[in-house]
Each structure stands twice: as C-alpha cells, then as structure tokens.
Amino acid sequence: MFFQVKPIKLKHTVSLRLVLILFFLIIGLAPMLIQNKIMLGTYRQNQIDARIQDIQNQCSILSNKMTRGGYLVNEPRDTLLDNEMSVKADMFNGRIVIVNKNFRIVSDTFSLSLGKLNVSEEVIRCFNGENSSKYNSDKNYAALTIPVYSNSEDKVIDGVMIVTASTEDLLTRLSSVSEKGSFLHLMIFSILAILVVLLVKLLMNPFKELQWKLKRVEEGNLDEELSSNAYTETRQITESISKTLKKLKAVDQSREEFVSNVSHELKTPITSIRVLADSLMSMDDVPVELYREFMTDISDEIDRESKIIDDLLALVRMDKTAGAELNIAQVNVNGLLELILKRLRPIAGKRNVELTFESIREVTADVDEVKLSLALNNLVENAIKYNEEGGWVRVTLDADHKFFYVKVADSGIGISEEFQEHIFERFYRVDKARSRETGGTGLGLAITKNIILMHQGAIRLSSKEGEGTTFTVRIPLTYIP
After folding, report:
1. What is the pLDDT of residues 235-262, one digit of tens each?
2. pLDDT, tens digit, 9 for 90 and up, residues 46-72
3. Domain-embedded: residue 192
4. Which Gene3D superfamilies does the annotation name (predicted)?
5. SS3 of 205, please?
6. pTM
7. Are 423 and 415 in contact, with CB atoms under 8 Å apart?
C-alpha cells in the first residue's frame, strides 16, 4: 500500500529557523540601538548647550569687567582686558570681536577686522537689548552676541561682543565615546546572537522531530506515530496529519474494495451467462420452452451487466467533471417530483406500497433537471423496493429563502446504525441477497450523493432498524458556479 504524492514546488522558501533568529535579533537589538541613538543625541545636545552656556557666562563676566573698566571709552585700551579676551578666545578655540556703538570693530582677537564696520542683524538686535545665541550644526560652531554697557548703573549699551566658538574638540570626545559604545554593542550583539541561536534551536526541536517522523511516513511507514505535544501548534499539526493519513488509508482501502467489487459485480452476470450457455450447449433436442427460458435469463443478465456498466460510466463522468457538465436551468421542482412519482407508481402498486406526495409550497430552482431527476428517482425507488408489503412512502417538498428540501420517508426495513456511514459507498449493500433480487447494482446511492454534491447540496440519512428510513436532501435555490 502506498500513496504517490506530487511534490509541491515552492519558490523562494525561507527557513523558519532563520526567520526566528532574525526576529529575535531584531527584537533584542532594535530597542538597544534606538536607545543608544537617543542617548547619544541627547548627550551631544546637552554638551553643546553646556558649552554655549559656559561661553556665555564667561563672556558676560568679561563684558562686566569691560563695563567697569570703561573699555570702550578709554584710550588706549586696557591691555589686561585684551589679554584676557585673547585667552578666552583661545580657550574656546574661537574668536572674540568688539563692536562699538558706531558699528565699527574696535577689537579683534584675530586682528583681521580692526576698523571695519559690522552692521549685522545680530549686532543691531543686541544694541536693541536682545541677545542672540545660535549653533551651526553643519560647521560645528556657536555664535553669541553679548552687550557691553557704558556703565553698570545706566545700563546703556555702548558696544557688542561677538563671540564665535568651535565645538570640534567636544565632538571629537563624543565620537570617542560613541566608538567605545559601538564596541560594547558589538560584544552585546555577539552574546545575544549566540543566545538566540541556542534558543531557536531549542524551540525548533519539536518541529525537527516532527519532520523526522514525516520523513519516515514519506518513506512508506504510514503507521508511524506522529504525536507531538510540545506545543499546541505541533499537536494540531500532528492531529491534522494523522487524520489525513487515516483518510488516505481509508481511501486506499475503499479503492481496493471498489476494484474488487467491480470485478465481482461484472464477473457475476458473465458467469451466469456462461453457465446458462454451457447448459444449453450440453443438452440435445432442447425444448423450445426451455430454450426460451434460458435465453430470457441470459437477456436479463446482459441487461444487469449493461446497467452496472452504465452506472459506472455515470460515476466516472461525474468524478471527472466535478459539476462542469451540469445543464443548469430554472425547473419547477413540484412538477419534477410529480413526474417521478407517476413513473414509480406501477412499481409501488406491485408491492402494495402507498406512495404519497406533499408539496408545502411551489418551488422553482436552478438545477440540472435530468441529473436531479435521476438522484430523486433513486431515493424514491429504493424506498419502494426496500419496503414492507403494504407499507408507505411519503415524499415532502418544502423551501425557505435559500434552499429547497426534499424528504423521502418510508416504513421499510430500516438501516442499522453500524451500516449507515457506509451507505453511500459504491457497491455497498446492507443486504446483498435482497439487493440482487430487486435488481440493484449497489451504485444508486453513490450516484445520488454525487449529483446532490454537484448541485452544492447535502443529503442526510435518518434510520432505525425495523422502523423505516428518511433521506433529507437540501439544495440551493440559486446555483452559483
């Protein structure tokens, strides 16, 4: 026993192990990298703000000294203040320029602009009492304007101190700190990667075990135990696979039984014909009456063989087309059932079976009239054939806004519960001897179920042994391909 399963070719498949490793690494590293980025940015800004504040404080002190010493009004300039101004400019790695109230530069630590005019917006705003402090992040320097008063009492602005200070040294130190942090991150990443790989390996072990078991199934060991309860997912997967394998084995067994039944059913009429023919050939001077009787029996067996072949071909066609051959049209189901019952009343009359039809409402539906007629005919004919002498068969038609329902109930022999799940299998008979007596092939209910499924419907069986059987068919009023 084996099943040949075509492999599914998947393009660009990705290993679950790799996905989990990447996922855990991202989950572990992303917060750390984001936090590091935020912390470094905040630390950098804080250092720059602190540097600017320190420059502003020290230059404000220098401005106060200039105010007290009358730096802008006394000639010559105070050399001590000039020296202090140069020292502070060197300390800030920048430049200090003093502009008087005439917008002329009177002091420059670089000695490049003495005597020149500076009528910039910042200088004008500072003379108006509005200090400015700006930082150029592209060129990494800060520019400040600080007023220089004529005296400490009147608070009259007599000049403006323009300070430019570089932050290159500060950023160099920050870069060094960042490099050390990157080295620390690399170490953390390495440790995290090792832990993630070990964790993923541990998590994947149940799936690896399941894969190994499936490999054994693939090699033909269909009885391999596939239970894996490590995770809910693995348990659900193994349960689904086990159910699938069980169904596959049942299908394979059903196929073997079907082939055996087909062989048997086709061989039986041929054997009967052969026996009858051999009997005729072995007898001399056969009476016409006996000859006619034998030929009648041979004709009946040929008809039986033909019916079996026709039913088999019908099943094969339905299996292949899966509904593609349905000739859907609007059909009056009430009239269809009345026609079926009219054809079957002579059979019911021979067995003294009362055949009644109850139509609760008029029903028009999208169906294949020929195929549905065959399915419903099989149900009603079986209800008549497998009934008691003097029994009854009731056919009921009803509908709602979506489906119509056909119920075929009888007072017949009923079907034992142990046989009900097999009743729609091909060539399955509860009472084989009686089935052959009534001319059944064992394919009628299989054909009926296939036709109903082709109409996107369903069929349900309710029966008790000795109390009769009820088949309920449900089919949509509108067929949607």
Report:
1. 777 777 777 777 777 667 766 666 665 6
2. 988 898 899 999 999 998 988 888 888
3. no
4. 1.10.287.130, Histidine kinase-like ATPase, C-terminal domain
5. helix
6. 0.46
7. yes
